[in-house]
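Write out this protein's structure.
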Amino acid sequence: MPIRARKPEDLDGCVAVLRRVYETTGYPSGWPQDPARWLTPAGQVGAWVAEDDGRLAGHIGLVQGVRTQCLLEVTGREAGGLGGMGVSPKLRRYVGP
């Protein structure tokens, strides 16, 4: 599955993937008022998309300076170097050890 830097014209597709993730998993906990802006927050240092047969399949963004206690508790790491990811529910699969 190719991964490349997100382009501005990818944003509508990223919002569509986020919508499918939200409807399947409930993440994010509330649907953002402006989902495109939610996917392009201040402090974002990079964003990438994954493609499956030329269609957008997922999105990941890296945001610097986020201080969220829940991320620290879940990962045991400061959130400064963590990213968020959304993958189309149809394309998820577990690849275990």
